[in-house]
Write a structure and sequence with these properties.
The chain has three helices and three strands. By secondary structure, the chain is α+β, with helices and mostly antiparallel strands. It folds into two domains: about 1-70, no CATH class; about 70-109, no CATH class. The protein has a three-stranded antiparallel β-sheet with strand order 1-2-3, with no helix packed on it. Strand 2 and strand 3 (about 45) form a beta hairpin. The two termini are about 25 Å apart. The mean pLDDT is about 75.
Length: about 110
């Protein structure tokens, strides 16, 4: 796994706050990036982030090696998993909010 050169720390992508709490110093596959949560709006992001050209290189040349779904898994399994995640999440969510993303990945429950 290649680790990319990081740019300076950035503000929150949603609210532009500079107040973060570190959640982890590595991500999946032992990639050494700092994962933070914004203390103002709750967005979870990597900070600092890889340089734009290196991030682009990752998605073009590396992403499928780590995150592609196995070819033998049908789309129905992912639909079922989505329904399970939605059902599980109901008790934690209010009715008046929107979810931007749940990074469910390709793992099967």
């Amino acid at each position: 796994m290649m680790n990319y050169k990081l740019v300076v720390e950035s503000k929150c992508d949603i609210c532009e706050s500079e107040e973060f709490q570190t959640l982890s110093n590595k991500v999946q596959f032992n990639m050494t990036y700092r994962v933070v949560i914004c203390k103002d709006c709750g967005l979870v992001q990597i900070n600092p982030k890889p340089e734009l050209n290196e991030l682009s290189n990752f998605y073009v040349n590396e992403y499928d090696k780590y995150y592609s779904a196995p070819r033998n898994i049908g789309t129905n399994i992912f639909k079922e998993r989505g329904y399970k995640i939605a059902e599980f999440s109901k008790e934690f969510l209010r009715n008046d909010i929107n979810i931007l993303e749940i990074g469910s990945g390709g793992a099967v429950i």
